[in-house]
Design brief:
The protein is globular and about 75 Å long. It has two domains: 280 residues, Fido-like domain (Fic-like fold, Orthogonal Bundle), CATH 1.10.3290.10; 62 residues, Arc Repressor Mutant, subunit A (Orthogonal Bundle). The chain has a three-stranded antiparallel sheet with strand order 3-5-4. A two-stranded antiparallel ribbon has the order 1-2. The chain is mainly alpha-helical. α5 packs antiparallel against α6 and α8 packs antiparallel against α9. It has 15 helices and five strands.
Length: 351
């Protein structure tokens, strides 16, 4: 909650790097609808891959491994499980399904967080329960040496700290202290610093991250595994988490290294999504359909830039080509010349 306490002062500026990430992610979100309207079968395959990769990667980050030959059976099947590791992977799958299917109506609340933890930890005795003892986050080296990376919130203060975090999250959303993506990254950082559970904190943090990104309208996690990308960039994950947690208890920490890291993960996911489906799923026919639809929705006069804003995945030259064809067929008229030219769709209602 210490990051949200910082943000409650409504910072006037954010780092340039974060601004660039937000701009790129805003553009990616604009293309999202265009991509998700295309090739249902390809999207189905991507969803299946993402489900498998997320369940396996998120657990593997925490040292939970399963036989690769049984992965599809564990994640997609209903057969009996062989051990606790398989139980935890399937439990994570169930948590993902809950978010994918009911995310819009699933609040970011203490109850939801405890429920997600219960999924992740299966039948173990403290599933869905806060830690009962204090414990440091310790890094172990190959030579046997250890060091304390971070001292989380004490067990006796865990419940109140998490409730405060959830309350500040809601207040931040209502009062718009920062951009929603910055807010969800801040929540993730504060959650990991509180470290509310004996085990499973990382997995729950990634599930809540997915849920919050859906609430903000960024749904790339349905098709590209955020957990896999975090695992592939695991060293940077731990580096930025340690860097941003330094001084957290005193409220003197710098949250931006970790926030930028999560924004980078989201940006990478969208870039991969576009690479996998964008070029295939958005042929000229689909792009033309999107542009024509945007033109027909215009009320009165409009400019090319108005269409660009509504069709972020389409280049200006392609919009000009379509307008030229519609002008030739008499569907639109052009008023003026050059960049300042205004257009009117003949079926529109004058303002």
């Amino acid at each position: 909650m210490m990051t949200f306490r910082q943000f409650s002062a409504k910072p006037e500026a954010i780092p340039t790097s974060a601004s660039w990430y937000l701009a790129d992610l805003g553009e990616a979100r604009g293309k999202q609808e265009l991509f998700t309207r295309q090739t249902p079968q390809r999207l189905k395959v991507l969803r299946e891959y993402a489900l498998i990769e997320s369940a396996v990667s998120s657990n593997r980050i925490e040292g939970v491994e399963v036989d690769q030959a049984r992965v599809r059976t564990i994640v997609l099947g209903k057969s009996e499980l062989k051990d606790r590791d398989e139980e935890e992977v399937r439990g994570y799958r169930d948590a993902l399904k809950l978010i994918h299917e009911e995310g819009a109506g699933l609040p970011v609340s203490e109850e939801t967080i405890l429920r997600l933890h219960q999924f992740c930890r299966g039948q173990i005795w403290d599933a869905g329960k806060y830690k009962e003892k204090d414990g440091d986050i310790v890094e172990k080296y190959p030579d046997g040496k250890e060091r304390v990376r971070f001292k989380p919130v004490a067990a006796v203060r865990t419940a109140e700290s998490l409730r405060e975090l959830v309350g500040l999250w809601e207040k931040c959303r209502e009062e718009r202290w920062v951009h929603p993506l910055i807010a969800l990254a801040a929540f993730n950082l504060d959650f990991l610093c509180i470290h509310p559970f004996r085990d499973g904190n990382g997995r729950v943090s990634r599930l809540v991250l997915l849920l919050q990104s859906y609430h903000a309208g960024y749904e790339v996690g349905r098709y590209i595994s955020l957990e896999r990308l975090i695992e592939e960039n695991k060293d940077r994950y731990y580096e930025t988490l340690e860097e941003s947690s330094r001084g957290w208890h005193e409220g003197k920490h710098d949250p931006w290294p970790y926030i930028n890291y999560l924004l980078y993960i989201l940006k990478t996911a969208y870039r991969e999504f576009e690479d996998r489906i964008g070029q295939v799923a958005s042929p000229k026919g689909a792009k033309a359909e999107a542009v024509i639809s945007a033109i027909k929705k215009q009320s009165g006069e409009f400019r090319i830039m108005d269409i660009e804003r509504q069709c972020p995945g389409v280049g200006r030259e392609w919009i000009k080509v379509i307008l030229g064809k519609m002008k030739k067929s008499g569907e639109v008229t052009c008023l003026g010349k050059g960049p300042a030219a205004r257009w009117r769709y003949k079926g529109s209602t004058p303002k």
